[in-house]
Amino acid sequence: MLQPFELFEPKYIKQLIRLRKMYLVSQSYPSHKDHFEEEQKTGILLSDYDDAGLAGVHLAAVKEDTHASIIHLANEKHLAKLTEMLSPLSRYTLYWAVVKDQQALKKRVDVNYKDQIRRYISKNTIWRIAGSETFRPQLQVIFGILFVTLKHGAQQIRIKFEDLEKA
């Protein structure tokens, strides 16, 4: 399973405050699992916002998630909880919804997922694809979820990356 996001480190807190990105939306992140770890930690994905309203929209989109919340970095209690969650003894592994190297990720998807893309298209669309035709998927993160956008002629589809991996 592809895990494109950065591990969230304590040093990022000061950077986010400096950039006035004071709101973090947390949500479950099952794609983090390390099958070599003896003790499996709970994966949490953090998305940053400079606007409380946008953070609220994201929270509303993931409201059914048991780990969904808004962490306000100016709130001492929230900051203390975040620091506790970052501790090595914590039962959580935190990720930041930031892709460090977009080009490397895109190349990885282009090379390693071309068969899944073709399978997904043949199962889920009516597109007629020539054997020599190649796709240039566009990647986008929306509310902490990685999406792939595929275009064929004038048509376009956006699918969750996890659905593509299952194809």
Please describe what this structure looks like.
- The protein is an alpha+beta fold.
- It has two domains: 6-96, no CATH class; 102-166, no CATH class.
- It is built from six helices and eight strands.
- The chain has a five-stranded mixed beta sheet, sandwiched between helices. The chain has a three-stranded antiparallel beta sheet with strand order 6-7-8.
Helix and strand topology:
Elements: E1 6-7, H1 11-18, E2 23-28, E3 42-49, H2 52-61, E4 69-72, H3 76-86, E5 92-96, H4 102-112, H5 114-124, E6 138-142, E7 145-152, E8 155-160, H6 161-166
Parallel strand pairs: 3-5
Antiparallel strand pairs: 1-5, 2-3, 2-4, 6-7, 7-8
State the main characteristics.
alpha+beta, 2 domains, five-stranded mixed beta sheet, three-stranded antiparallel beta sheet, 6 helices
Tell me about the largest β-sheet: 5 strands, mixed
Gross morphology is: elongated
Total number of beta strands? 8
Q: Sketch the topology as an H/E string, one letter per element.
A: EHEEHEHEHHEEEH
Work out the strand percent.
Answer: 25-35%
Return the domain count.
2
> Number of helical runs?
6
The low-pLDDT segments are none
Radius of gyration: 18 Å
Q: Helix amount, in percent?
A: 25-40%
